[in-house]
Amino acid sequence: MKQQCRMALAVAGAFPTLARRNTRYPRRRLPVASKMKAVVVTGPGVLRLREVEDPPAITAGEVLIRVAATALNRGEVPTEGTYSPPEGSSPYPGLECSGTVLDVGRSVDRWKVGDQVCALLNGGGYAEKVVVPAMQVLPIPQGVSLREAASFPEVACTVWSTVFMTSHLSAGETFLIHGGSSGIGTFAIQIAKYHGIRVLATAGSVEKLSTCKHLGADICINYKTEDFVARVREETGGKGADVILDYIGGPYLQRNLDSLNIDGRLFIIGCMGGITSEVNLSSLLARRLTVQAARLRHRSPESKAAGGGAACLASYRSRQGETCDPRVSSLVRSIGGSQADGEWRKYWKDTAN
Ligand SMILES: NC(=O)c1ccc[n+]([C@@H]2O[C@H](COP(=O)([O-])OP(=O)(O)OC[C@H]3O[C@@H](n4cnc5c(N)ncnc54)[C@H](OP(=O)(O)O)[C@@H]3O)[C@@H](O)[C@H]2O)c1
């Protein structure tokens, strides 16, 4: 699948220090103490390449991966403050990766040493090696390179588990995705189109709107120059969208409700614009609207596996479709070490509003 706004970082034999320690990492090391490289968040907005201890020894149900590539995700590193992974997670950033299986724990029969895979991580992708629950490991789609595969798990699992598994977006319905040129948006447009859904996408520039169009969006709306509520109503004969995927949050809540059809479903996965809002509840009552929200990172491995597995199947099937293209983007490049810091900062600066 094409993901125009994401970067896959090739880990060229280099890469994560303990920004902070947690209860799991210091105790169980690989039997022979060895070091690896990792990208470490050393302060607000600062990444450094450091030599650090290897990951903990794998236990039953886990897989050790030698990381080939990882991807940048807006959700994983705050623009202010230091990196604060959930308790028990790797201390290094990196919510997804691709690479080669180095070792498998007891009871893992789906993967073997040498397999090339991609994986949804709890962190740790910005390192040479990472331990991950086997159920969060995914096969690489045919025709997709090892590097490209690093940018697949997070968006696929997020989009599939929210709008498809939970909001039941179905063929023939209308879907509004905000920020259609984002990592999430580029995947959402393609997978929705493949499933026979009419897609409306918002973006903030002519270039980004053209990306959405190229990926298959039926209607592209410039949220900076147009009122998206009015446009959605106009394009749907006054009815509104059946499902909306939103990560702007507070400032968009009422406007999203106003853009939904009867029995419409709004799924919120982020709050880039703010976390509070006042809403008129009569819009929910009158049109039987549903509002849901979820954060992938805090889900259990079983829940991630369910979303990831289903997303995987859905996406791999969609690769038979004509509209799909496995390129990541011209942003993909081989970077490592100090270069990663510059690229990372540029990414956040370029995409910040
Ligand atoms: N809940 C979860 O499990 C989960 C998982 C993954 C991601 N997320 C969230 O999803 C969001 C997107 O992540 P990403 O990695 O795909 O981000 P990304 O690639 O960095 O793209 C973010 C895009 O948002 C767009 N944007 C900003 N304000 C907008 C607005 N008012 N209306 C429409 N678009 C707007 C910007 O494009 P323009 O220039 O067009 O404004 C920007 O390119 C983040 O908030 C992230 O935290 C949540």
TrEMBL record:
Coiled coil: none annotated. Keywords: NADP, Oxidoreductase. It comes from Iris pallida. GO terms for molecular function: NADPH binding; oxidoreductase activity, acting on NAD(P)H. It comes from the Eukaryota. This is Quinone oxidoreductase PIG3-like isoform X1. Homodimer. The keyword Secreted does not apply. The keyword NADP applies. Residues 45-321 form the Enoyl reductase (ER) domain. InterPro entries: ADH-like_C, ADH-like_N, ER, GroES-like_sf, NAD(P)-bd_dom_sf, Quinone_OxRdtase_PIG3.
